[in-house]
Amino acid sequence: MLDRAGCLANDRFIRQYQEWINPILARDLELKTTSRPSRIVDMGVGPGFLSRALARRFPEATVIGVDINPAMLDLARDNLAGRPEAQRIELVKQDVHALSFEDRYADVVISWSCYHHWADPVRGLAECWRILRPGGVLSIFDVEPSPEMIPYLQANLSDPEIAGILVKSLREAVPQQVVGEHARAAGIVGFEIKPFELDMAAVLDCIDEIEEPARVSEPSPVNSIAWALTARR
Ligand SMILES: C[S@@+](CC[C@H](N)C(=O)[O-])C[C@H]1O[C@@H](n2cnc3c(N)ncnc32)[C@H](O)[C@@H]1O
Predict the structure, then answer these.
(1) Which protein residues are within 6 Å of ligand 1, measured from CB?
(2) Which of 17, 46, 104, 198 is least surrounded, with the fewest CB atoms within 10 Å of its CB?
(3) Which SUPFAM superfamilies does its entry note (predicted)?
(4) pLDDT at residue 217 above 60?
């Protein structure tokens, strides 16, 4: 589990390369939901950027940012401090494999870049599915393995800690075909899994919300392909 320094490296990585994606994920979720969610669980909240974008996009909702790492939750708390939307974000320490939330707790379970950490993805998915109410939306994203990117990132990224984080996640990444098998084994019905593609209408719709646009002075690690697993309970 990352200590404070590791969490800060993760924070640097997200600010430098990925923060821009969070308003887009929140808009993507809005397009996937038929009614306005009131309880959104952000699984693997990390430094808190997606939870913040969700709280902004859904002003009537409470966002529950879940993370197994107390140091990461402290960092999320620091990042959210003083922001008006933080009043509707609860940060809780839990493990996706054994959630304490009751059945039908959430309208949405969303997760970005956390799946590759799960020791038992079938169990993790089954837990996310269990806590969804009927009609609720499961929306999970993570990267495809891209072994060819590893030497490229190691050679080109100037921050070795960021390179280390990325290389680890690319090594642990689960291909979408396997994720589909996990979803079936977890009892998730009617799911869709496909490469995550940016919807340009969604991007343009939330472009003003992007606080820290990705810098282009270094190769972007987010050129790797991500997948999106979506299901309605
Ligand atoms: C790469 S970070 C992604 C953070 C955030 N979703 C983002 O992209 O900005 C993955 C996060 O998942 C958390 N995590 C790992 N295993 C977990 C588990 N079993 N249950 C809950 N959270 C977990 C980690 O502590 C870490 O904060």
Answers:
(1) 10, 14, 44, 46-47, 49-50, 66-69, 72, 95-97, 112-114, 117-118
(2) 198
(3) S-adenosyl-L-methionine-dependent methyltransferases
(4) no
